[in-house]
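Supplementary Text 2. Reproducibility record for the structural model of the 134-residue chain.

All settings were left at their defaults, and a single model was retained for analysis rather than an ensemble. We include the record here because the model underlies the residue-level annotations in Supplementary Table 4.
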Amino acid sequence: MKSSLTPSRILSLLLWLVMFHSLAVGIGLIFMPVSWLPFFGFEPYARNFYQAQGGIFHIVMCVAYAMAALRFQKYECLIQFTIIAKFIAFAFLIIYYLSIDHIWMVLLSGLSDGTMGFLVLLAYKNYKKHRAIN
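Retained model, structure tokens:
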């Protein structure tokens, strides 16, 4: 029996998971009460402009991830963009955590972005290998 998890389905699934992660983070940043920030290791802010801006940024990113997941054969550059974006986020967050402020959520976010980028990269390479064979 042939598995339904082909390289193209795995790649698409991972891209959808990355998209939903960014959507959840974006919505969370926009609507999370400022009073919750200390729990995540951040100092409380008087206003939430940067929090909302970060939320909107994540929602914008999830549009690119959704476009990649929907038609990755046509928009292969969006797969590459996803990988690059995740690795840049990983590098920034880990460097920030190590050199500026030991906020546990920054470390967790960095590790999750690195993991997502690595998994999408592996799935993309596997997809390209199987596409070249067929």
